Write the structure tokens for this entry.
Amino acid sequence: MRKKIVQYYVLVCGLVMLLSFGLFLTATYQYVQIESMQHLQSEMGCIAEGVRLNGEEYFRQLETEDRVTWVGADGTLLYDSAPKGAREDNLLEQEEIRDALQNGTGKSTRHSDVFPQYDIFYALRQPDGSVLRVSCAQDSMVSVMLIMSSPLLGILLLVLVLCSFFAYRLARQIVLPINQIDLDYPNVDATYRELTPLVSKIQQQNRTIAHQMDELSRKRREFAAITEGMTEGFLLLDRHTNILSGNRSALALLEQGSGQKIENLRRDGCVPQVRETVELAIAGKRSEFVIEVEDHSWQVIANPVVSHGQVHGVVVLVMDVTEREQRDQLRREFSANVSHELKTPLTSISGFAELIKEGLVPPDKMQEFAGDIYRESQRLMDLVNDILRLSQLDEQGSMPSAASVDLYALARRVLSRLAPVAEEGEVTLSLEGEPHTVWGVEPILDEMVYNLCENAIKYNHRPGRVDVQVRKTGDEVVLKVKDTGIGIPAKDQPRVFERFFRVDKSHSKAVGGTGLGLSIVKHGAQYHNARVKLDSRLGEGTTITLYFPPDKSK
């Protein structure tokens, strides 16, 4: 502000000085012109009287620095004090002589062709009809400015220096009371009256901030009371992993207090896995893990706090899921046991069905009975295989080694295998995108894509479409399977990935299947650290999207 005051003050002073100099030069120049014309008129009176008394003899004794010209009534040059080379050719055409012949007097000003000056002419008609003319030279405005430029510039420079000095002192005195305003407790009487609205506004804002701080403190107390009463753990961290807040459950699990960093917590127990979830959340990705601490299972969920596209912190929830994990464990054990128990009798049923198909039963019942047994046995075999696959994924037992898998080529092979089924169901298959690789186990990935595409064909309309797309979004490789089928009701969507869950049991029985396809997809995605997204509308179709992490081999 002080700099601007000085600049404006000096600028105004400079402009005022320049304007004053311009007015002064203009007034001076006009004054000189008037004085010159009066001088010529006075001199003309003397010369006219001398010519009247002495005639042409008067010019022989005339001594003057001005030019004197005597012109006859017919335009004859009777006398001219100027050299012959500077004389005009036709005097009657000169403005001042023409006016003098007509009106008695004439005046004119003409610019010199040789020098930067003006010639002022005054003409007077004599009683005999002749005309006397007197002229003098006057410097032009440009010449006057050039002559006076040096002193004027000196004066202007001096004035600007003085203006700068006084402007600086004045600006400092003006700004000093403003800088001395106490922003916490501003006093209206201690500053300029013109600043009263500003000071009043600061006072009002201070009151508003104090009220907001009180409200914030109250809400923090309420928030602390709520979180402390939660059985779930709660942590709030900034982007530098400093623990800003946490309830008793979370801090007890970590055996630490607030104000520390996740990286500095003890490295035994569950802290390393919590640290991993926080690091993923700081990178902008929601993450969750289930960790085991002694005889308890804890689910850790880390969500990034994003504002204007930037991560400013992380919210971590720690929930006791011991009971849920135990139920899942019992279900997994049951599935594994049932699978092993059913595989042997199912193989026998399949063998009997083949004997019947060979003709070892009465001909009138053989084909129908054998076909039913064979189809049911195959369906049960598929069920057993799916249960075994789920059990394998749950336990993460022996798996083929992981490698880079071209997801686009894999999807093309799956669609090729399903082409006959799609043609029978009047479903059009399409594949879009380009080759992208993911790091994973190819048989599992193949089964995941196969189950998605098979479901999209089975639960489709006639005619219908299944569109498969493989693309890359950021660092993630995305596989999208979209159909135009019957869709899934909103109330059933959270459960479609559960084992043996069927939305429409009658329709599922008609099209076949084990009810484990999407469960295999979900567990396969978890095995590959991928995300699954479901988007479905009843009667319009379903879209299932898999988001795979970057290929770590690259």
